[in-house]
Amino acid sequence: MASKFSSVIDHYPEYRVDIGIEVHVQLTTQTKIFCTCANGFATAPNSSICQVCTGQPGVLPRLNGKVVEYGVMAALATNSQINKRSRFDRKHYFYPDLPKNFQITQNDLPICKEGHITIRLEDGSKKNIRLIRIHMEEDAGKNIHAPGGESFVDLNRAGTPLLEMVSYPDIESSYEAKEYLQTLRRIVQYLGICTGNMEEGAFRADTNISVRKKTSTQLGTKVELKNINSFKFISDAIEHEIERQIELLESGQRVVQETRLWDTKDRQTIAMRSKEGLADYRYFHEPDLPVVQIDDEWISRIKSSLPELPGDKCDRLLTQYGLTLEQAEILVEDQQLATYFEKAHALSPSKQTINLIVRDLLSLLKEEKTELASCMIKPEHIAQLVKLLDTDRINNRAAQEIFKHMAKKGAMPEQLVKELGLEQVGTSDELERIIHDLVAGHPEQAAQYRAGQQKLFGFFVGQAMQKTQGRGNPKIIQELLKKYLA
Ligand SMILES: [Zn+2]
Hints:
Blueprint: E1 15-26, H1 65-77, E2 81-82, E3 85-86, E4 89-92, E5 102-105, E6 112-120, E7 126-138, E8 142-145, E9 151-154, E10 161-167, H2 174-191, E11 203-213, E12 223-228, H3 231-250, E13 258-263, E14 268-274, E15 284-285, E16 292-293, H4 296-304, H5 310-321, H6 325-333, H7 335-347, H8 352-368, H9 379-390, H10 396-409, H11 413-420, H12 428-441, H13 443-450, H14 456-467, H15 474-485
Parallel strand pairs: 12-13
Antiparallel strand pairs: 1-10, 1-11, 2-6, 3-16, 4-5, 4-15, 6-7, 7-10, 8-9, 11-12, 13-14
Helix pairs in contact: 2-3, 5-6, 6-7, 7-9, 8-9, 12-14, 12-15, 14-15
The protein binds zinc ion.
């Protein structure tokens, strides 16, 4: 199968690339991880803070049980092994947005480990990307650097619950990286634990990239790409970085272990800080929080509340409805749309249903810039339209017309067919008379056609459609034309 996606690595057949990704998932709990401050996008700076999340002396953190529940959900959805006893640690560093000078995170005993998620490759096959671990932690605040040189600290985000999901370097291309991130984002969105909004920083990816000769069994020196907030930019940055690293090695230089940023304007990565050696964060167990205990009963309760996950949904849609992978993926991308399709299909099971939804409904929504939820066309409308098409009462052109009117008024297709006079000129008698007259009225063209000018057939079809004002059943018209032109 020809590859639709081309990568810079294709030009260096002796090299391979290894990519590992750390994703920070901001959880949508009502309150923060260790205090009762509201969690979310507070409007005024420093308006959703207290002594705990600003690190005042003498206060104690209290773990939000919802965060653990969301962690277990993520663990189950990524086939991970849950640690029934996990622990929090302090990770020390100094930065103005972290007033207590340490972040509470999980170091050696995270909530879960050794999972995997399944991605689809370009040829439709599946690949597992393994997860090293998922751990719970708190987010820091935000430093805001104003144009005049002044800097401010907003601590609203401090104490926001995060899950950090760390993959093995199993990802081998920018395509796989994008698939991995999209798949992971869909999972947390299906679980309802994260909005997945990258622009708002609710789903953030740090990507570690290294290249090596295929003959080498050791991973190359990795470079970390930080703070990239779109799938497209991540993919572009990886491509650029693969090329930069291979060129360094080819010219006899070495890759420096460092963190780099993606410059969207100049389309290149730029060095941010060197990361030679491991930073010493002086980890130690958080003395103010007890060990987190998760029992089997809780796990099975959470398990039974999980929704159907995107990968399972995709497999089911493929087999249950005989959809193409592309159609199934469009539905899986939007949970609401998938439900919509299944409702419409249940009302009138037909191959037409999926076409009307992924082709006509989606392009209409795009054209009118409307959301599915506020669209006047409901599954009942689609189902009735499908019936009209399947029984040959209307043709595709009429269906398009009905679509436009349904979107405006929400009227049912049956009613619109009558109102707009769109019923097919379907009875053969009526069509037969029209075709008979048509061929009789164009003796010259008919003779030319019979003499071998095949393309004149199209002329007759066009004439017939005109005579029926577009309401003729194209199949019957063609059959009749063949009969009279023979
Ligand atoms: Zn607080």
